[in-house]
Every structure is written in C-alpha cells, then in structure tokens.
Amino acid sequence: MRQISIILPKGNTIVDTIIAPYNLFRMANSHLQRLEHLKEPPFKIDLVGSTMEPIHYQGIFSIQPTATMEDITKTDLIIVSPISGDLPKEIENNREFISWIKDQRIKNDSEIASLCKGAFLLAETGLLNGKSCATHWTSHDLFRERYPKVQLMPEKIICEDNGIYSSGGAYSILNFTLYLIERYFGRETAIWCSKISEIDFDRISQNEFIIFSGQKEHTDEPIKKAQIYIENNYDKKLQIDSIANMVHLNARSFLRRFKKATLNTPLEYIQRVKIEAAKKKLESTTLSVSEVMYNIGYNDQKAFRNTFRKYSGLSPNEYRNKYNREMAFS
Q: Which CATH superfamily is domain 2-209 in?
C-alpha cells in the first residue's frame, strides 16, 4: 500500500485547506478501489502531526492527527498544508516539519506538494532552489524577498518541477488536488471526483484573481512618491523620465531603485496600475471595452488587449463577461 501524508501545521491555517484535500483523496481512494475491484484501498492517507495531540485552529476547530512524523518512515507524497498570519513566525513554529520533509525527499525520493502558503515551508527546505513555484498572490513579494533562488511563477496556480508540486492560493487547492489525483489515481478517477464534487477541471492560472495594490512595504520615499503619483494619474500618458525628474532622481538611478523597491520596472508598475483600474471598471460599469481603454490612458487597442491578458489571464471581454455584476445577472 502506498502512502500519502498530509501535514497538520501548528499555529494558523485555514481548516478547509486541510479537510478538503483529505476528503478528495479519500474519495479518489474509494473510487479506485471499487473501479479496480481491489481488496484494500490503494493508498494509506494520513493526517500527520508532530504528536498525536489534536491540533486546534482558529479557536473553534480541532483536527486529530492519524499519525506522527516518527510513525511514517516512508511516504510517496507529502502534502504541505498552508500556514497563515505572521509567516516568519509560523515557519519557526513548524521547523521540525521542514527537516522531516527534506529527509523524506533525500532518503526516499518522496514527491512533495505545497498548498497555497505552504510553499514557504517547502522553500525553507532548500528543495525549491532553482525550481519553479506557485503560491498565493498576496504573498508574492515576501516570497521573492525571502527565497531569491526560487523561480516564482506568479501567474500559475499549479507548478510541477521534478516531483515537487506547488499551487496558488485559497480554494484553487481544489483544482490542485484534482491535478494530484490525476497524477496518482489516474485521469478517470480525477474526472469522476471533479464531477461528483462539482469542481472545475484543468484550471491552471490565477491571473484573473490577482488584485494589484502596489508594493509599498519599503523605505525608499522618492519611489513611494512616484508610485502614488502613478496611481493617482493612471488615466494620463505617463512618461518615466518626467516621473524621475519629479522625484529628483536621474533616469538610471530611478529605474534601479524602483525595481529594487517594488520588484517591477516603472513601465510594469504603470501597466499593472492601469490594468487594475480597467478591471474595476469592467466589473462595475457598463462602459464598453473601448471606453474603458480610453479612460485608463490607452489609445492602442492591440496594446491594451495584450497587456490586459498578460496581467489578468483573460481578454477584456472575457473578464467583463465573467465578473461584471449586471452581465452576470442579466
């Protein structure tokens, strides 16, 4: 019997992100057992704690581990459940899991899958260095800062790199779990679980869910001033040299400091601010796509559509059809 081990982290997490994958894996296990007329389920699925003591979450819920790390000497797949809240603090609270994950990979060639911000625990092992990774879009900046050797894929909700998997955020873990079920139980079982659970199958991008709010958690005041200017004047044709002059920096220094502070070039930042404004207008107004384009300072339809798709994963029309309130209920 093969082994799937779902980590129960200490501290803060969202209970659904543990229970939902656990139930989906159990559903797949039972289905494959029936499908292939097996005497026993093909996988043993454990909720793994540091001890057998129940783990309490959010002051309301508790989950009973079915095994400890010491009980499991070899596992085929480790699911690294998300942490939340003060991430550096939560990483330290769960340091013993980090060593166990690394040992399982090195000694047993276990595959590893991180859910949402569980990517932080996985990255702490060093196993992600030089590999691609996805995590929740709200933590991209901190992840880049903390793990510069990892290739963050901000647009993805599913990444796979040599037996190490990672996912985007929140309930995209359901799509990710179906992906893992296909990998371990077969596509037929994954599609069956998708239909029974009414979860979209084969969704791989989280771009359409990203809300860009600007990266201002830095201490470079001239760059903050430039950011605020861009955000207040997104509807105009913005010139990078003019913005640099406004904050009393030469162009070369401005480009270097802007990239260091925000992790975007000034042009990327301008584009992202404009596209975020366009998304809000497409969600909440009846303006045409062309009207929205002009309102955010674009005159070239092709450039607008290409940039919009780059940062949202959808065309402007697709985005409006999906998220506009009036169109959704018309």
A: Class I glutamine amidotransferase (GATase) domain (3.40.50.880)
